[in-house]
Design goal:
The structure is a single chain. The protein is α+β, with helices and mostly antiparallel strands. It has helices at residues 16-30, 42-46, 101-115, 129-137; strands at 6-10, 51-59, 62-70, 84-92, 119-124, 141-146, 158-162. The chain has a domain at 3-121: Gcn5-related N-acetyltransferase (GNAT) (Aminopeptidase, 3-Layer(aba) Sandwich), CATH 3.40.630.30. Strands 1-2-3-4-5-7-6 form a 7-stranded mixed sheet, with helices on both faces. The protein is globular and about 40 Å long.
């Protein structure tokens, strides 16, 4: 499989039931989301009231991933100047993990943020160290840590990250201007 075979398109309402299945199937291995089962309908986790845009990745007509951008409810926590948008609900099917599909989804969200003159930010649970490493490799930087009320007591504070402004090369990495 090549990322050239993956199509990223806007999410449609009829994608949500499939996304529920994909999210549930990948959760035991990724522990994303942390709380499982969720204490509310999974559809509410996927489609958020703060959402501004959302996309899915398709491979051979099958939905295999998701990302959304949402307004930031607590912009002060990030300490980043500018109008922010949060990259959220990013996950891929186990069958495509490691293929670059997640990167395509992330690039789509970042491109949307830049097109709308917004600063992309995200949060990551420290136990997801692989995700943190990928974000850092792509130029994201840590700007703080917070302790949301949904975080279990035995988990470290959530890492807040942003992608500094500047041109972005293929692969989502910020490069000096």
């Amino acid at each position: 499989m090549s990322t050239a075979d993956v199509v990223v398109r806007p999410r449609r309402p009829d994608d949500v039931p499939v996304l529920v299945e994909v999210l549930a199937a990948q959760q035991p291995g990724s522990r994303y989301p942390m709380r499982w089962p969720l204490p509310f309908p999974v559809e509410r986790f996927l489609v958020r009231g703060t959402e501004e845009a959302a996309w899915v990745a398709e491979l051979d007509g099958r939905v295999v991933g998701h990302v959304a951008v949402c307004s930031v409810p607590d912009p002060e926590a990030f300490g980043v100047p500018g109008d922010m948008v949060s990259v959220a609900v990013l996950f891929v099917d186990l069958a495509v993990r490691g293929t670059g599909t997640g990167g395509l989804l992330l690039d789509t969200a970042v491109a949307w943020a830049h097109e709308h003159e917004r600063v992309p930010v995200l949060d990551v649970v420290p136990r997801h160290s692989r995700a943190i490493a990928v974000y850092r490799h792509r130029g994201w930087v840590e700007v703080g840590r917070v302790r949301p009320d949904w975080l279990p007591v035995d988990e470290d504070d959530v890492v807040l990250m942003t992608l500094p402004p500047g041109p972005v090369e293929s692969g989502g990495r910020a490069v000096p201007a």
